[in-house]
Write a structure and sequence with these properties.
By secondary structure, the chain is of the alpha/beta class. The protein has a single domain, classed as Nucleotidyltransferase, domain 5 (2-Layer Sandwich), CATH 3.30.420.10. Strand 1 and strand 2 form a beta hairpin.
Length: 207
């Protein structure tokens, strides 16, 4: 595999002597749908010239990488927390719960967790390190971000078939102007998060 700048910008691990799993979530800022997390354990010598923060990649590249990561990873897990649970426990706790569920799905037990972000609720007896913007710093977190993002996009594409007027196939449930205008025109759906501000007051005044 040819050398590539992207690959060597990302670190393979924080503790080379330990089995590390990278963890990330997708959908935290959305108005509708679940929050989805992934945990990934990569081989120590893993390289992929395309692997990067999922937000910096186009959809085609993310989908290609998802296939490659799931094929090459020593283990990966996916955790999902739906909109009802988000409303009940709040989005921060839901994000932690989704990561816990993803870690629980790993077939290989990690010895250390690399968590994207600055906060995390400890999982069982595993040590963890929070890394701000970790999906642009560590390969395993970047891999987790891609699996979480593509899985959540897949879910939102399916929900789009039920409620096409929200255009979730395009906005994936994020608070775009188009999405919020559709809520004003059609009302919310059974998949919207009621604990979120679906329509800001200033936008309501325009209608």
């Amino acid at each position: 595999m040819p050398k590539n700048k992207t690959t060597y910008q990302l670190l393979p691990f924080l503790h080379p002597e330990l089995i590390e799993a990278g963890c990330d979530e997708a959908g935290r800022g959305c108005l509708a749908g679940p929050v989805v997390a992934a945990a990934v354990i990569l081989p120590k010598d893993y390289q992929n010239p395309l692997l990067n923060d999922s937000k910096k990649l186009n959809e085609k590249t993310r989908n290609q990488l998802r296939y490659e990561i799931e094929r090459d990873a020593l283990s990966f897990g996916i955790g999902i927390v739906d909109h009802h649970e988000i409303d009940r426990i709040n989005i921060l706790n839901a994000s932690f719960l989704a990561m816990h569920r993803a870690i629980a799905q790993l077939s290989q037990v990690p010895e250390h967790l690399l968590i994207d972000g600055n906060r995390f609720n400890k999982y069982e007896n595993l040590d963890h390190t929070c890394v701000i913007k970790g999906d642009g710093k560590f390969l395993s977190i970047a891999a987790a971000s891609i699996i979480a993002k593509t899985k959540r996009d897949e879910i939102m594409d399916e929900l789009h078939m039920e409620f096409p007027h929200f255009n979730w196939k395009k906005n994936k449930g994020y608070p775009t102007k188009e999405h919020r205008n559709a809520i004003i025109q059609h009302g919310d759906s059974p998949y919207h998060r009621q604990s979120f501000t679906l329509i800001p007051n200033e936008q309501l005044k325009l209608f």
